[in-house]
Amino acid sequence: IDKTETIVECIKNGAYDYLVKPLDETRLLMIIRHIVEFERVKKLSQSLSNQISNNYEKISDAFSSIVTKNEKMMSIFKYIEAISTTPLPILITGDTGTGKELIASSIHRLSCRSGAFVRLNVAGEDPNLISDTLYGHSKGGFTGAVASRKGLIEQADNGTMFLDEIGDLNIENQVKLLHVLQERKYYQIGSDVGKYSNARFIFATNKNILQLVDSGKFRKDLYYRIKFHHIHLPTLRERKDDIPILVKHFVTKASLILNKKEPRLPDEIYSLLSNYSFPGNIRELEGIIFDAVSRYEKGTLSLAEMKNNLDFKESGDNEQYIYRMTKKKDNSLTIDGGFPTIEDVTKLLIDKALQNSDDNQTIAAKLLGLSRKALNNRLIRASKK
User: Fold this and answer.
1) Cβ(255)–Cβ(292) under 8 Å?
2) What pTM value is reported for the model?
3) In what helix (H) or strand (E) does residue 185 lie, and over which residues does it extend?
4) Minimum mean pLDDT range among 33-42, 81-90, 160-169, 193-202
5) CA proximity to 273, closest of 293, 295, 252, 289
6) Residue 204: beta bridge partners?
7) Residues 6+ apart with CB under 8 A from 240
8) 3-state class of 151 per DSSP?
9) Three-state DSSP class for 206?
10) 319, 317, 241: which is closest to 273 by C-alpha?
11) 53-65: per-residue pLDDT in tens?
12) What is the CA radius of gyration of the chain?
């Protein structure tokens, strides 16, 4: 009987892995660890759907640093509670400023791990130094290494290793990280003696990892290794019901830090902020509120000064508005995001028509329902502004 066929048939019937003679004790121990880990996660996964479907009873104190009453966020909290004690990696995705590090920190607190929460922003690290930062080095490992140094992964032993902006990790370091996740083993620079890590890994990125995989900038095998569990955070414009409580929270926080009397809020503030797209999400809202409170002297918080910090004309946002305008059966329009001006929409439509017609103004005018002369007049006026 062909050995390969036998192995395949055994795995089809439920075998976890296989060993060949002579027996490799290191591989045997590794497989046993993986089986124990797999069975533990399997049992947790079986009860996961039941836990998530429960009503949103009292949320754990581990989320106390996250201000929200949004239903999407509550659902994320319940999911985190269900997976917090698993040893498998977690990938957190979401736009800049949505609170990915706060979520990672909450997971660590819920995990009941005795070790530290250790953080590294990959984007802010020199690619040539990441190996030393993560894995450390032995004495004499390279010129100038007069003493050994613990890497961050060793510092995270029994705790959590959080790698932020993982989408910026270069291919060479991706290979090393993949080995750590597969074998739970790493090597310090200058040492051929491996060290085992029991740290729990959490990753975060604001990039589309699948697009990076398709372009060859991120390894597919690593992608599937880092996202055993996946949490995607909504943007602030997707949780606008949180704007009032976030505003009050940041006003109170800013007043305490700046040692000022807490100001009254103008009635129009929530209407103004609800019609803004917040490209910088919660972090941007916090900055806007802090700036307004720092300028505040007495009476009501100035709405006029706050408006100066709202960039309603940011082209990236307004282009999104065009594609999110959906016509309903009653001919009404729904716009998801901040509200663009007529001038913004007109300019973007003309630009898009010219793009689709390869700058042929006659065709572009037909797409827009204008005469060639009317389009030309609009372009002349726009060029003079």
Assistant:
1) no
2) 0.72
3) strand 185-186
4) 33-42
5) 289
6) 92
7) 274
8) coil
9) coil
10) 241
11) 444 456 788 999 9
12) 27
Residue 103 has pLDDT above 90, yes or no: yes
Beta-strand pair 160-164/200-205: parallel
Bond before 22 cis per omega within 30 degrees: yes
Q: Which residues of 105-121 are buried (b: 16+ CB within 10 A; e: fewer)?
A: bbbbbbbebebbbbbbe
Tokens linked to 319: 């282009």
The pLDDT tens digits for 268-291 are 888 888 878 899 999 999 999 999
Distance from C-alpha of 83 to C-alpha of 357, rounded to nearest angstrom = 51
Instruction: Kindly tell me the sign of the dihedral angle through the C-alpha atoms of 81, 87, 88, 93.
Output: positive
How, if at all, do strands 195-196 and 149-150 pair? unpaired
User: Which of 41-50, 87-96, 352-361 comes out lowest in average pLDDT?
Assistant: 41-50
Torsion sign, CA atoms 316, 231, 158, 192:
negative
Rounded-to-integer distance, Cα 304 and Cα 48, Å: 48
Rounded distance between C-alpha atoms, residue 325 and residue 346, angstroms: 14
On whether the CB atoms of residues 204 and 101 are closer than 8 A, the answer is yes
- Burial grade of 325 (CB within 10 A; 0-12, 13-18, 19 or more): middle
